[in-house]
Amino acid sequence: MLSAQFPPIQPGKTSLLHCFVNKMVYKNKSQILINLNALKLKCLNASVITDPNRRDIVFLLDGSDNSEQRFSDIKDFVQRIVADLNIDTNKDRVAVVQYSNTAEVNFNLRQYSAMDDVLDAVRGLSHKGGYPHNIGVALQYVRDNVFTSESGSRLLEGVPQILIVLSGERSGDDIKTAVRMLKEIGVISIAIGTTDADTIELQTISHEPNYALSITNYEELSTTKQDVSSLLREASHHVKETTPTASFDSKKQDVVFLIDGSYDSRNGFEEIRGFVGKIVESLSLGENRDQVAVVQYSRDATPNFYLNSYSSKNDVLNSIGTMRHKLGRPLNIGKALEFVRDNVFAASVGGRRAESVPQYLYVFSGGRSGDDVRGPAQSLKENGIKTFSIGTKNADTLEMQTISFTPAHYFYVTNFNSLQSIHPSLEATLRGAQETTDFPSIDTSIISELKLQSADIVFLLDGSDNMRASQRHILDFVREFVKQIEIGPNKVQIALTQYSTEPTIDFLLNTYFLKDDVLSHLSIVELKGGLSLNTGVALDYVKNNVFTASSGSRAQLGIPQILILISGRRSEDDVLGPVDRLRNAGIVLYNVGVYNADRLEMEQLVDNPRARYFIKENSDFPLVREQLLSVIASHKGTVHHGIGSSSSIKRDIVFLIDGSDDVRSRFSAVREFVANMVESFDLDKGKDKVAVVQYSNNAELSFSLNTYNSKDDVLKHIASLKLKGGRPQYIGAALQFVKDNVFVSNAGGRHNEGAKQMLIVLAGGRSRDSPRGPASMLKAAGVVTFAIGSRMSNSAEMQIISSEQNYAYSVPDFVNLPHIQQNLMGHLTQMGVKEETKAGKNAD
Q: CA 390, CA 395: separation in Å to the nearest integer?
């Protein structure tokens, strides 16, 4: 059979099939085709990566308005790099693309095959122009239009694909998806950014962190030539072993709907049918496009039609519209999954897995399965089928998670009448699924993209003797949860408490503002032990001692208050009263029951099935963690009316920044730091007001507290700030200027209205005058001062200027300012909460 399909391999010759056959044992033709598709690039790569002068190199140049004055420097840099290449049709190829708000090709990889022609084309480049700076759009453009065979790319021949990106500022759009897609096809990226570019963005784009290079401005591009040349040589020997992603055709999909046809769905069958029809409406059906199949199941599965039954959308919609409810009991989901795998995604009925066409399965369930789903679900994942599951309140959450491609691909509805409410979320997740053909058992990227916003999350762990055997799994659960969220004073804050007979605090919400510090503490935590278990006492304790302003709670700022209880058995005291008190305080409770947890008590603790989870065995921990993350990330968080939706405390915040010649090369870092701080302020509602002052040998007001009433206006002014210049630094005189001219009522100061007045001082050098007197006068006037110094400033001066010892910061260089931003924001935020609490007590 094999010899009839393929010619014999000639002795002594290396061929694709030879490489392929040496790696695999085949059962049938379709298996051969699948593995051939997967191995084709690997084998071809092996034959070419030894030639360091055979590369496809694409320059993605900043063509935005901001780069116009330095575009000659950019062109000079490209010419210098090209001059060292070996340009030829069978050697190095070069393309150039410019971007701003859009991207456009100047010339592609196929256009020139001689060095002189490439250099002439680069010299003749005209600046594109445009705004803003959309790097994500540009990266997607080069993937779709430049790294293609039509444009001269030799990706499928295993030739290294190299992208050199120049960036002069932060991107105006999201880059993550485009970066991931470039990496998936094996593109190796080198990112070069000025001081106005975002360092994290550059490292995200780059192949590895050392492939991200920083310069002050485009004038310095020539200084990177040696580093770029070295990275190009290294990249020449670095070809990604590409999987069937290269063959992925986003214009084709095999989509199968597996519908609950049992008695459990009889009241929602019309809604399921309408929902399926709505999804089909968005597909592009045709002979060589999308295909659809529908299967109903109860005790067994019955196909309504197969993937190759219809080739027109109208025929499919007509069949769905006339579909009758199957009915029957019980609900055997595992058996149904096996049926669609073997009989519906099969090539004989239209399945196109052998052509690497993406395959998707939608499972609808209105109840718990009567058989095991784990084996069939795993085999679907191994076959590359991405499964979305939609379950009602009667379905088993863990079962639905297990079936889904990842826990984020599970969607909960109270009943099938609510299906339309999840359509936008499901479409967004489907788009994410279409962007990759990797098939992990658990994928956390979708969860991360949900972007859990600000929340105060307290973990309450059963630390009794009963849980000692599971200590590693429980603490890993907490650590991995923390790794997937953004920690910070304006993001998520974490606290940890254990309990058995009595509760014990490990750390509070305001103990740590950095993720690394939280994880460091978690790495040394051990369960406390104890014989008895008083969950009720522990619930009251965290309400009264952890969810408080003094412990870091931001409830009075309207931040969601979330408690995650992990328990392993029934409590020995009453839990109903404490649960009611938590609910009345606006604290949302999630319960994770482990092993011997009492299911009835779990229902008493949490009545929402999406907020309680049961772990039967250790392998369930990751699945439950992902689902919990997904549910909390979608939590809208209404704070109890007795607490208030936001703080009423007003803040006057003044930035006094070093504008001397000493910080000229780092002024953009200072400007970016101020802008990032302002992003977190509540300016649009008039709660916060901001002013900026620069100083060197004298002080100069950039704008006062009453100049702007909106965040956008403040940020625009900050973005346009120019260095004042001058030397030396007179910090004492600058502090006096701020006291006399900025915090005053005729300049917008609201001290008489009860506003908290705060000053943030940045110093890049030692003061020529004494700051002691003016600093004391500011403190006496009630101004809270934070001082930030670099390695050239005087640490004793910073302590004198700051209101408290821990309000003084030191960074090696102003480019390191982001390292202290979260901690500083933590102090600013907590100060607002403390003032709110103080005001409340005075009112009482």
A: 9
